[in-house]
Amino acid sequence: MSALDHHRALDQHRGPLQDSPIEFRPELRWWLAEGLHTDRTLRFEIDAAHRLGFGGMEFLAMDEQAIDHPRYGWGSEEWVHDSQIVVEETTTRGMSVSFTSGTNWSNANLPTIDPDHPAAARELNVVVEDVRAGAGREGALPRIELDAQRTESLLPGHRIAPKTQEFVAVVAVPVVTEGADGAALVLDADGVVDLTSRVVEGALDWEPDDDRDWKLFVFWSHGTGQTASPSASVNYTVNYLDRAGVDAVIDYWGSTVLTPELRALIARNPRAQMYMDSLELDTWGEGGLFWGASVAREFRERRGYDITPWLPFLTRSVLLMASATTYRYQPTDAQRATVEKVRHDYVETLTDLYIENMLRPFAAFLHENGILLRSEISYGLPFELTRPGPEVDGIETESLEFGSQIDAYRLLAGPAHLFGKQYSSETGATTRNHMLDHRFYDQIIATQLAAGITKTVLHGWASTAGAEGATEWPGHEGMWPGFSERFDLRQPASEFYPQWNKAIGRVQYLLRQGRPRIDVGILRTDHFVDNLSGMFFLDQDGARIPDEVAYGTMWMRDRANHWWQDLGMQDAGWSYEFFDGSLLQRDEVSFADGLVQPDGPGYQALIVYQEALNADVARLLLDWARAGLRVLIVNGARELKLLMTGEHILNERAASRTPGLDGRDDELAATMAELRAQPTVAEIDDPAQTVSALRGLGVTGRAEFATENRNVLGYLREEGDLLHVYLYHFLYETGEDTVVEVALPGAGTPYRIDPWSGSIVEHHGVRLDGDRTVVSVALAPGEIALLTVDRSKRPAESAPASREKVQEVGGWSIAVESWDAGENELIVEDRGLGYESREVRPTTAVTTIAVDGTELRPWTELAGVGPEVSGVAEYRTEVVLDRPAEPGERLLLDLGSPAGGLGAVVVGDGEARGFDTSRPVVDITDVARAGRNTIVVRVASSLNNRLIARGYYDGIPDMGTLLLGRQESHTTVVRPHGLLGPVSIVSER
Question: Which residues pair with 914 in a beta bridge?
Answer without folding.
Answer: 904
